[in-house]
Backbone:
């Protein structure tokens, strides 16, 4: 659960930065958000979740 909240906060922060810099319009951000909600209700949601979890585990296991 902590990983998904972190990813959401990261994506939200990036979206706010892009909106303020003019690189992302509000309508584009809205479409992306709606796509995220749509994908969460499809059968692809567990695959996306497991992929993000595996990526977070991989990044977390790297030692500098």
Residues:
């Amino acid at each position: 659960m902590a990983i998904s909240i972190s990813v959401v906060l990261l994506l939200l922060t990036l979206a706010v930065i892009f909106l303020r810099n003019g690189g992302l319009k509000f309508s584009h951000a809205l479409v992306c958000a709606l796509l995220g909600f749509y994908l969460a209700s499809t059968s692809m949601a567990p695959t996306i979740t497991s992929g993000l979890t595996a990526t977070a585990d991989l990044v977390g296991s790297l030692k500098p």
Q: What stands out?
A: The CA atoms of residues 9 and 15 lie 10 Å apart. Residues 1-37 form one domain.
